[in-house]
Amino acid sequence: MSESDDISELYRHCDILDKAADTSPDQISDLKESYEVILKGTKGSVKAKKLAAQLIPRHFKHFPSLQEDAMNHLIDLCEEDDLQVRVLAVKSFVPLGKDVPAVVPKVADVLGQLLQSELAVELSGVNEALSQLLSIDAKGVLHALFTQMATDDSGLLREKAIAFVYQHVFPQRALLLHPHSDVEELLADEIKKVLVDVTGSEFKTFVAILSSLRIFQGERCVELLQLIAEQAHLKGQFQPSDADSIERLLSCINMALPFFQRGEPSARFVSYLGAQVLPAFDQLSEEARLSVLRSLAQMAPSVSSHDARSILQAVFDVLKSQVPTKEEAAAKSPKINFSHVECLLYVFHQLADKAPLSLKEVCGMRLLTGQPSDFDAKQQADDKLADFRARLTFLHDNTALYIKQLSTSLRQLQLLNEPADKQRKETVGTALVTCQAIDEAVKMLLLPRPQFLVGDAMHVSWKQATSNMQISLKADASQRLKPPPKHQLPHKDAISNMCPPAAAANAGPSTPVAQSVPATGGKRRPIKLSGGGSSKRLQQQAQQQQQPAAGHKQRHRQGHKPTHKQTPKHKPAASIAGAKRKAVQQSADTSAKRQALAADTSAKRQALAADTSAKRQ
Q1: Nearest-angstrom CA–CA distance, 523 and 236
Q2: Candidate from 78-92, 237-251, 570-584 with smallest mean pLDDT
Q3: What pLDDT is attached to residue 219?
Q4: Would you tell me which of 118, 428, 466, 502 could form a disulfide with 338, CB atoms 3.0–4.6 Å apart?
Q5: Which helix (H) or strand (E) holds 517?
Q6: Helix H or strand E encompassing 30
């Protein structure tokens, strides 16, 4: 039989089935032979295969006994060499699911295997078919896809299936998942099964999907934190030389941050950092050190008071190791990494505000409570505080010198305004912001009554927007420190609009951010407490106090009340005459009041004398 005869035969049997479906739907199942002829068309020529692929779904629902056979014929077409045949076969699966929803899981299983296709046209057709089947039976499609993930050995199918879930299911969660809690439960259970063995990127994807589900928006978000904690391996021993374990830990902390900020407990992570990570800080690589401190800094504002007390000592020990005293610097010539110090000071301020009573034991700072314990181990606390203040003072001196260098360098770059210096300008600007944040934090700790910059009160570099960078060159460490108002923490104009980490003053585009600089000595400039700088008004008041009081004495002789206001040397004549008239009128009024008062007093005395005389008689 020729190719044209095959096509005509397929059309003829399709017409038979169409007429039966219109006239006698109950008897169409008796035309089983006609449907079998259409199924055999998948074994014919390319044109016959294309036509059969389009005709099979047309009457699929009318022949339940042939449905499995029909699906197998379509699966065979998906393995054909001709691309158009494969694309038509993929499209034909969607009508099968619409007419008979029970076959959706099996259809989704077939389509899931086809996600491995490397041809964009075919892969697009598979994604579109799966997306349409999701609206028919989301649970069936999701179960089939996750089964493919669990059984795939090559890894390619697993990657493609995860990508489909994230790119096609996740964006439609409001329509497919949120209205149906049973679908969300199934998705959560399937994800938990594959979390036994996942890569870092896969884990991030699954946590993002789980976090978006409504079933985890309330109390059950603790389950997500549990999953993240298990993935971070917090029960194991920390290996500072294992880059993969450090990256996994930091990744899990970043994923858990949104939960911590909503008030969920961070005790397990805080305890692990304080007990194992920070004590091994010196063994970490330079990049890992900054990453660990940044992660801890992002956690610090949401740490509970109990957790703050547990980790405060470890944080202080690292801070102490990063900031030498003047004597230690002279002996060892250490370097101060300002990016590390900025993170540590920020964390210290947050924790100290939450656990102020622990400061005495940690660094010697005492907050008087009126209890006898205020004076326990006073000498030891004083020694700790003296050491801490010596380190802060040395840090302040070095930061002040570095701010001057950075300000000069930035001013020169701004004057030159060369396009090639754009990256260098940003690097120097971010270094200036870091040093200004350190200077601000140190000054608050050196106050007679230390104050702590909580939350956004400390303008740290990583919270600033680089695109909106406005560097103030007026900021200088030589500015006097003014006592902060009672209603708010102090705020320096010089650091109100700044941006990210530290770098050397002469850093170029290839210089890493937050470069260390050598600690230098020099004359110590004391930090003074002052209510404000000298002003013109204060100078005028001082001059007035030193002027002789001759003018006041002269006005006393004229009967005027003393005043500290000086009369201008030259006044208009009208003003002088008006002043005289006013003085005369005031004098007359005063005289009249005195006469009236004297007459009233005399009348009262006469009345009292008459009354007394009458009583005696």
Answers
A1: 49
A2: 570-584
A3: 80
A4: 502
A5: strand 517-518
A6: none
The one-letter amino acid code at 431 reads A
* pLDDT, tens digit (0-9, with 9 covering 90-100), for 403-444: 999 999 888 888 888 877 788 888 888 999 999 999 999 999
* Structure-block tokens of residue 60: 């699929």
* Alpha-carbon Rg for the chain in angstroms: 42
In terms of residues, how long is the chain?
Answer: 617
What single-letter DSSP state applies at residue 371?
A: S
What is the rounded CA–CA span in Å between residue 243 and residue 256? 20
Q: Which of 344, 500, 516 is nearest to 434 (CA)?
A: 500
Q: How far apart are CA 386 and CA 326, in angstroms?
A: 13
Round to whole Å and give the CA distance between 36 and 307.
72
Close Cβ partners of 406 (under 8 Å, ≥ 6 residues apart): 428, 431, 432, 435, 505
CA distance 253 to 266: 10
pLDDT of residue 614: 67
User: Is the Cα dihedral 203, 208, 209, 212 positive or negative?
Assistant: positive
- Interatomic CA distance for residues 509 and 72, integer angstroms: 61
Residues 215, 180: Cα–Cα separation, whole Å: 10
Rounded-to-integer distance, Cα 32 and Cα 66, Å: 9
Residue 343 burial class via C-beta count within 10 angstroms: exposed 0-12, middle 13-18, buried 19 and up: buried
366-385: average pLDDT: 67
Tokens read off for 588? 């007359």
* Beta bridge mates, 272: none
Q: How many whole angstroms separate alpha carbon 617 and alpha carbon 615?
A: 6
Beta-bridge mates of residue 518: 335
Is 348's pLDDT higher than 50? Answer: yes
Percent of the chain residues topping a pLDDT of 90:
47
pLDDT of 419: 79
**DSSP codes, 423-469:** HHHHHHHHHHHHHHHHHHHHHHHSSSS-----GGGS--GGGS-GGG-
Pick from 376, 405, 577: nearest CA to 476: 405
| Token pair for 349 | 């301020």
d(C-alpha 438, C-alpha 399), whole Å: 8
CB 474 within 8 A of CB 494: yes
- Measured CA to CA, the distance from residue 92 to residue 328 in angstroms comes to 79
Pull the structure tokens for residue 74: 């379509």
- 3-class DSSP state for residue 360? helix
| Residue showing tokens 């197998």 | 72
Kindly report the backbone phi and psi dihedral angles of residue 497, in degrees, each rounded to the nearest multiple of 5, phi listed first.
-135, 75
Q: How do residues 548-583 score in pLDDT, each as one tens digit? A: 444 444 444 444 444 444 444 444 555 555 665 666
For the chain, report the end-to-end CA distance as a whole number of angstroms.
164
Q: What angle do CA 101, 103, 104 make, to 5 degrees?
A: 70
- Tell me which residue of 317, 480, 499, 505 sits closest to 404, measured CA to CA: 505
SS3 216: helix
| CB distance 391 to 324 below 8 Å | yes
Which tokens in the block code for residue 293?
Answer: 């401190």
Place of tokens 């996994």: 248
Task: Say yes or no to pLDDT of 164 above 60.
Answer: yes
Q: Is the dihedral of CA 268, 272, 278, 284 positive or negative?
A: negative
